[in-house]
Design brief:
By secondary structure, the chain is an alpha/beta fold. About 45% of the residues lie in helices and about 20% in strands. The strands form two sheets. Strands 5-2-1-6-7-8-11-12 form an eight-stranded mixed β-sheet. Helix 11 crosses helix 12.
């Protein structure tokens, strides 16, 4: 089994560390500074799970698929930011010889709409989604720190495809320290994460506070409750489902379990803004706004936090 990690941000390095710890044969596609660091020093994992180090000889690291020769991958794990989905899909589609006959693509990405972008280039029986509710940060280009963990990684198909081909991948990730499970309800999982992310991610960036602080204040709770209500209405109108029948049911789990489990985490949107990088807000609250427009649903709270993040993203503070 040969695996390609396409994108070596914090999630990509986190998943790569699990696979390497399980002895998997992997290569990593990353930006030049990351490739140099990985080839020179190897990959380091720190944090709430076991520390792990993989020497440079344990894996391949490349800046482009063009540099990879005489290799075929069984799994391609796409760990790029959601705004890079189209570019990643096109790049991978232009390197079809790197795919084994039954190769599968697994999207380890935030937001909604990534699978649709990949389906423009690949048949849907190749595309799977992963839901990750684990907090990763990357203090150095070749180092990942796991800061919080709320639930196991879930892998499934939005297109009703057979999941048995994912069993080996799940075992490798689990063996590396982060539990991974197959699920027949990945749509519900992804929308549960949308509810979670749309409420916390933008506000955490706007106020530069960890998630727990947002739940402590009655003022931010009112905003998050409204965001969740709007996202839920749009989800239902669009024909999608999650694990709860009413937004109030999710809100209880949100404050009782999900936020406490990730109370110390700071949002990826904040990390991107501080690093002066584009954020994934378009695939989060932006995706909700787009779907809402199709169904003529007002989402003023989602629109407000979206606009504020866009202001911060523009660097005009």
């Amino acid at each position: 089994m040969r695996i390609l990690i396409y994108g070596a941000g914090s999630v990509g390095l986190g998943i790569a560390s699990c696979l390497l710890k399980s002895g998997a044969d992997i290569d990593i596609i990353a930006r030049e500074n990351t490739v140099v660091a990985l080839r020179t020093h190897g990959l380091f994992r720190r944090g709430i799970f076991d520390d792990f180090e993989a020497p440079p000889a344990a894996f391949g690291a490349y800046t482009s698929l063009n540099w990879i020769q005489d290799t075929q991958y069984d799994y391609i794990l796409v760990c790029t930011k959601s705004f890079d989905s189209l570019g990643a899909a096109q790049d991978l589609s232009e390197h079809a010889p790197l795919f084994s006959k039954n190769a599968k693509i697994v999207l380890f990405q935030n937001g909604w709409g990534n699978a649709d972008k990949f389906s423009s280039f690949f048949s849907t029986d190749r595309i799977y989604n992963a839901r990750v509710i684990t907090g990763f940060v990357r203090p150095r280009p070749n180092e990942v720190e796991i800061t919080v963990h709320a639930d196991s990684v879930h892998i499934g198909s939005l297109f009703g495809c057979d999941l048995s081909c994912m069993a080996g991948l799940c075992e490798l990730i689990s063996g590396g320290g982060i539990a991974c499970e197959l699920t027949e309800t990945i749509e519900k999982d992804l929308w549960a994460k949308m509810l979670y992310n749309c409420a916390l991610n933008p506000l955490g960036a706007i106020f530069d506070v960890p998630y727990g602080r947002l739940a402590e204040s009655e003022f931010t709770r009112v905003i998050m409750d409204s965001i969740i209500k709007e996202v839920f209405a749009v989800m239902v109108a669009s024909g999608y489902n999650t694990h709860w029948l009413k937004p109030t049911d999710f809100v209880k789990v949100f404050y009782d379990r999900l936020v406490p489990d990730t109370a110390e985490h700071k949002s990826s949107t904040l990390q991107d803004i501080l690093a002066e990088k584009p954020t994934e807000i378009d695939a989060l609250n932006g995706a909700v706004i787009s779907l809402a427009a199709q169904h003529q649903i007002a989402v003023p709270c989602n629109q407000a936090v979206y606009n504020l993040v866009k202001f911060l993203e523009s660097g005009t503070r």
